[in-house]
């Protein structure tokens, strides 16, 4: 499907600014996922039973150093219980010498596509609004996320009203399209959203990135809600991670 007629296509200056920073963004993404606590390094996520206290030292007990002498490290994570909403406290284990890092080559991506730099409008809501998001490993259950506004634009005459959630102070858009499950990750892709004063926002789908679940099975990634699914192939942004020797992260 051609997208050259989309009414929300960005200006030439906005497109050139996006193009100018794209190579640096690509390099930063590759470096970030192979970092000691990057997506590839997550080797386990532990959720102790309610009332059970597990220290970081206990979680690391008996875990040997990797082939480069690095040790597994531990950090804490918190989430809301899917039924009660009460906080749950977990532990993530990271290995800077994880097999996924050792086999990783790069993240495949589409060529820069100027037609997928879109100008949209962000309309904030007056109160904090919670919307349910299904997550990959929750067997169809949903977890509420704060969605502080709506993102609207028109694509080939079709209006879209997308929801980005507050991810620790950053707006994160979880979006699906017709490339998911073939050229791109089946669970959709992520896009960081930065509204400008006055509500203008640039959706540069060249920077749509594969979610953490594409790199490690120990994440529980949110999936695109129905309103965030574009009924076209978005042939821009990241495709899938590339590994050597037939390695698969799952």
Automatic annotation (TrEMBL):
Pfam families: DUF1684. PANTHER family: DUF1684 DOMAIN-CONTAINING PROTEIN. This is DUF1684 domain-containing protein.
């Amino acid at each position: 499907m051609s997208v050259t007629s989309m009414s929300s296509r960005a200006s030439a200056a906005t497109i050139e600014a996006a193009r100018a920073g794209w190579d640096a963004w690509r390099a930063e993404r590759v470096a970030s996922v192979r970092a000691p606590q990057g997506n590839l390094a997550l080797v386990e996520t532990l959720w102790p039973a309610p009332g059970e206290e597990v220290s970081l030292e206990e979680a690391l007990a008996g875990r040997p150093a990797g082939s480069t002498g690095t040790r597994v490290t531990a950090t804490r994570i918190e989430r809301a219980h899917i039924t009660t909403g009460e906080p749950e406290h977990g532990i993530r284990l990271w290995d800077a010498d994880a097999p996924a890092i050792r086999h990783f080559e790069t993240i495949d991506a589409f060529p820069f596509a100027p037609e997928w730099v879109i100008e949209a409008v962000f309309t904030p809501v007056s109160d904090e609004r919670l919307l349910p998001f299904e997550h990959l490993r929750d067997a169809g259950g949903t977890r509420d996320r704060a969605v502080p506004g709506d993102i609207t634009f028109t694509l080939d005459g079709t209006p879209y009203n997308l929801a980005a959630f507050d991810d620790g102070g950053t707006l994160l858009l979880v979006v699906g399209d017709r490339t998911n499950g073939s050229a791109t990750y089946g669970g959709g892709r992520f896009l960081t959203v930065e509204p400008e004063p006055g509500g203008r926002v640039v959706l540069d789908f060249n920077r749509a990135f594969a979610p953490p679940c594409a790199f490690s099975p120990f994440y529980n990634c949110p999936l695109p809600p129905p309103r965030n699914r574009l009924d076209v192939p978005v042939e821009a942004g990241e495709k899938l991670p590339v590994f050597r020797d037939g390695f698969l992260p799952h």
